[in-house]
Protein: DNA ligase 1
Organism: Fagus sylvatica
Amino acid sequence: MSASKARSTRKQRSESEFAVSDKRNRVEDEFDLDLSSDIKGIMSALNQIREKAQKDGQKKNEETISSVASEIKSVMDELKSKFEKDRQSFAKTLSKSSKECENSLKNETARFQALYEKFSKEKVSHLQALKGKRERSMIAEQEKACGEKIAQLEESLKKKKQDDKTFSILRKTLGSFLGNASDEDFPPDD
């Protein structure tokens, strides 16, 4: 009997251990199911929070981009306005300077013409006074010196006229570069 009792006791122990183990497994399964359900709920909530944060971030990015675009447009408008004012100021200064140069050239031309006429008259009167005398060599030297002076003055006048033409071309080129300059802003060349 003792062998059968031992077997019976072992069997009872196995069954009771199995029942306890089964009960434990059921509790763990229920706990796992509850935990799994809670984790799924938390994950769902986190996904919703992430999506909302992404939408908020996108909205904030759009607002930032719009704000920066407005600031850039404002700066560009200010620069455009400043450039236009500077261009107009430059055109006025150029026009004024051009007129001053033209007036100066006209004055110098008039002075040269007056000096040339005076020189020519004096030359004629001196030549007549010295015609009968021996100082013809001196007269020739004087004529040569005066001729050189006249040539220098004529060269100077040509250079001034050339400078005026060059300045006029420059003025017209700058006028076409600046865009708004019209032919009325610059008088025609003489």
User: Anything to note?
Assistant: The chain has a mean pLDDT of 80. The first helix runs from residue 2 to 130. The CA atoms of residues 98 and 171 lie 8 Å apart.
